């Protein structure tokens, strides 16, 4: 394998890695935030892992908001 080919592959893989991270990190942030309390959502500096994980946001989503029918229509 030539040096230029190896260098090119390394550069391409590096670019692909950063592009994949740019696509995945917002999704991971959204999932992390869904387990935070309202106070933790607005904390500065923001934290990736909530100190007190809670599922109250999901309880509200599936309990008080009529979310079931629109969700089932998407499947």
Which features characterize this protein?
75 residues, mainly alpha, elongated
Count of DSSP strands: 0
Summed over residues and divided by their number, the pLDDT gives a mean of 87
The share of residues in extended strands comes to under 5%
Distance between the termini: 48 Å
Oligomer: single chain
Q: How would you spell out the order of helices and strands? A: HHHH
Query: Would you tell me the structural class of the helices and strands?
Result: mainly alpha
Tally the structural domains: 1
Largest sheet: none
Low-confidence spans: none
Instruction: Give the number of helices.
Output: 4
| Coarse morphology | elongated
Radius of gyration: 20 Å
Q: What portion of residues is helical?
A: 55-70%
Describe this structure in words.
With 75 residues, the chain is mainly α. It has one domain (3-74). Helix content is 68%, strand content 0%. The protein contains 4 helices and no strands. It has helices spanning 3-34, 38-41, 56-63, 68-74. It is elongated and about 60 Å long. The model has no long low-confidence stretch (mean pLDDT 87).
């Amino acid at each position: 394998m030539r040096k230029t080919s190896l260098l090119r592959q390394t550069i391409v893989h590096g670019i692909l890695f950063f592009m994949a991270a740019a696509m995945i990190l917002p999704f991971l942030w959204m999932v992390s935030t869904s387990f935070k309390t309202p106070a933790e959502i607005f904390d500065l500096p923001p934290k990736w892992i909530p100190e007190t994980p809670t599922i109250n946001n999901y309880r509200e989503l599936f309990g008080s908001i009529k979310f079931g029918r629109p969700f089932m229509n998407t499947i």
